[in-house]
Structure formats: structure tokens, C-alpha cells
Amino acid sequence: xxxxxxxxxxxxxxxxxxxxxxxxxxxxxxxxxxxxxxxxxxxxxxxxxxxxxxxxxxxxxxxxxxxxxxxxxxxxxxxxxxxxxxxxxxxxxxxxxxxxxxxxxxxxxxxxxxxxxxxxxxxxxxxxxxxxxxxxxxxxxxxxxxxxxxxxxxxxxxxxxxxxxxxxxxxxxxxxxxxxxxxxxxxxxxxxxxxxxxxxxxxxxx
Length: 206
Description:
206 residues, three-stranded antiparallel sheet, two-stranded antiparallel sheet, 19% strand
């Protein structure tokens, strides 16, 4: 089936727009991600009250660690509750009566859905700040006997490659379709139409 020139042009325009959008997404990956934590350090325990928390916050000096993102002192366990870390990060609103966790693979703060703080002696509300975990000291209790399993941040590594693959998926069919149309057009230049053949035969008979 011969592809029309109009179809090829429209296909090229839409795919170009798609490639442009994907390039913008890829460019955004190079911008500062305020969700990423900084100055991570493994510690034995977290501050158990506000005064100790403020003291450690002053020592950590998170406010000077990044000019683009407002990062504050944090201290919490990892996902497996067998290690404790303090670090600088932007405040995260934790949802659902869950303690916060430091995701080592992704380098982010998030809810630990295996660690509910609803029934603690100092229970947490449905929404609470990740930078105020000292209010719920049971959240930072560790279980040193818990084996640590591998944890990787797949999304952060896959996204750039996925964008590149999508660009290829869009660009290759467009290039192939246009080359096919160009080739067929060149081949048809030397061929006479049915009406031209009939007219030629009629002229020869005359």
C-alpha cells in the first residue's frame, strides 16, 4: 500500500512534537531534585525529644547544605528498622498513621507501611511532618536482628533509558515510512499511468 505524502508529513510533525516533549523530560532529570537527601550519616539512635533534636539540627547545619532546596534535619530508621540515619532533607507530609523511613536505595523519605504509629504511647496523627519524628520516639526504635535485603531504586535508573527508547520507537517508523514513500515516488516517475498508455496506443494507431 502506497503511503500518501500528507500522511507522512502529519506523522513526522506529531512524532517531532513527541520527541521534543521527551527531550524536555530528559532535561528536567538534570535539575536539582529537592526530594533527595543529603549529608547522610549512620547513627546509633535518634534524638528522643525536641531539645535534643534541635541540638542535633544545629550540629548538622542542614540549612546551609543546599541553596535551591530548604532542607532540615531528619533522623529515622531504614525500611527494615535495623539501622538509623540522620540526614538533611525537605520536609515530607507522611500519610496514614505511619512512621517515616529513610529509603536507602532511592535516597528519599517516605512512609514505612510496616511501621504504624497509630497505637504507640505517643501516637501520630493521620498526617504528620517527617522532620518532627522526635514527637513519636517509638518510630525510631530499631530491630538489630532484622536481616537487610537488597533494595534498589529502579525508577531513577530506568527513566533516562526509557525516554531514549521511546524516542527511537517514534523516530524509526517515521524515518522508515518517509524513505519508503520517497523510494516509491522515484520508482513511479518512470511509469506511465493507464490513461497515458491508452492515449499513446491511440496516437500510434492514428
